[in-house]
Design brief:
18 helices, elongated, DUF2851, 2 domains, DUF2851 domain-containing protein, seven-stranded mixed sheet, 11% strand, alpha+beta, two-stranded antiparallel sheet, 431 residues
Length: 431
């Protein structure tokens, strides 16, 4: 038994006599009718706000606190806390002592032990029994969840994930004094850095003012050496003419725009596949802004994956056609952003920025962005494969993103009682 389960029982009135006209009896024999269980509080303070009850015929409005045992009231020092002064009912599993408020008045107590259907308790215990679980708690039932339950829940879970990213965008908008173009540049730079170099790429993007980025992008071939120089990647000594020219260009730009080489976060190459080396990604990022100086405007007006794929299909400069790092050459190969990488940029950067910008302007774009996301193929990773083994999935990125959020924020931390799928299984067992 857990308090989270008791919260579920009270919130949805999943106990015998909860909705009967005759009501329930407190531990001292008072009649209780539940008019409204109250609003579930996930923060500090009483567990349910603004409940409405009728106790022995008298109407009460206030808060409800839930504990496993009555004595937990004193264990948590609620009798001394002003936040609990308006608790009108104490809901417990086991009543092991009388409870009084700060003014020494008794608080009515409702004990749920013996009132909950055994089938519901059994389903809950099976759901939370991690000993038999290989992937997620509900894996034996996951494939049988009706589409009418499964699909709306995944859409809601995806929007939770999107909201988290949008809040990050809005926070950076404040940090960058409301410059939306600078926000997009910083967010794109972070994504170009991939997981390993995300922090370093973001630092680089913030180190160079975006007003300077605009000026550098207007001079073909200048933005790339500045990226490499600020990142501290240009070699001290070189025999290659192209690299010597880049060093000269960087020194010119460094003096003109008062730029400082070197970052607090060092660029990493270890354990990266060569296409993700920071040298190549910085070259491609520079090419993107040289080719599309009005990138922000185009991205905010575009809602088709095919258009984004063409817009971002930039390639690293010619030096990198025969190099992954300085001084080591290989057979010629064009280093262009792949379709898969562009899809990742769409998912992690462009869609969140588009959503945040629309919200800033007071424009509704939720349906438009969900449509854009469904144009992107289902991501392939071990987490998605785990869910695919349990049921057939729609083959788009909205589902893969939602499943990542579901696994990380509901399944892994055992938040089944807050999950639409877990709630469906519990309702089914108690019906």
């Amino acid at each position: 038994m857990s308090e989270a389960f008791l919260h579920y029982l009270w919130k949805f009135l999943k106990f015998e006599e909860a909705t009967s006209e005759s009501g329930l009896l407190t531990t001292t024999g008072q009649n209780v009718q539940i008019l409204k269980p109250g609003m579930h509080n996930q923060l500090s303070g009483p567990d349910f706000f603004n409940a409405q009850l009728r106790i022995d015929g008298q109407l009460w409005a206030g808060n409800v606190e839930v504990h496993l045992k009555s004595s937990d009231w004193y264990l948590h020092n609620h009798e001394q806390d002003e936040a609990y002064a308006n608790v009108i009912l104490h809901v417990v599993w086991e009543d092991d002592c009388d409870v009084f408020d700060k003014t020494n008045q008794p608080i009515p107590t409702l004990a749920l032990n013996g009132r909950v259907p055994k089938s519901l308790i059994h389903t809950y215990q099976n759901l939370m029994n991690r000993g038999q679980v290989r992937f997620v708690n509900c894996e034996t039932d996951f494939g049988e969840i009706p589409v009418s339950v499964f699909e709306p829940w995944l859409e809601r879970v995806y929007l939770e994930r999107l909201e988290r990213k949008v809040l990050e965008v809005e926070s950076q908008l404040d940090e960058l004094q409301g410059d939306w173009e600078a926000v997009l540049f910083v967010r794109l730079a972070r994504s170009f850095g991939t997981l390993v170099n995300a922090e370093a790429f973001e630092e680089l993007a913030k180190t160079i003012p975006f007003s300077t980025i605009r000026k550098l992008a207007a001079s073909p071939g200048l933005l790339e050496p500045v990226h490499l120089g600020v990142a501290g990647l240009l070699p001290e000594e070189t025999q290659e003419a192209v690299v010597r020219k880049w060093k000269q260009d960087f020194e010119f730009a460094r003096t003109k725009f008062n730029l400082s080489p070197g970052l607090n976060h060092q660029m990493q190459f270890f354990k990266l596949r060569p296409p993700n080396f920071p040298t190549l990604r910085l070259s491609q990022l520079a090419a993107l802004y040289e080719h599309s100086p009005n990138l922000f405007e185009i991205c905010m007006q575009t809602s088709e994956r095919t258009v984004f794929q063409k817009l971002f299909a930039v390639k690293a400069s010619s030096y990198w056609e025969t190099h992954y790092t300085f001084g080591k050459s290989h057979a010629k190969k064009v280093k262009r952003l792949t379709g898969g990488f562009i899809d990742i940029l769409l998912i992690n950067t462009l869609i969140p920025v588009k959503f945040a910008y629309a919200r800033y302007r007071g424009v509704e774009v939720e349906e438009e962005l969900l449509n854009l996301l469904t144009q992107i193929p289902l991501e392939q990773n071990s987490l998605v494969a785990g869910f695919e083994a349990l049921r057939k999935l729609e083959s788009d990125a909205m589902h893969s993103q939602a499943l990542i959020q579901l696994k990380q924020n509901y399944c892994d931390p055992n938040r089944c009682l807050l999950c639409g799928i877990g709630n469906f299984l519990l309702r089914k067992s108690s019906s």
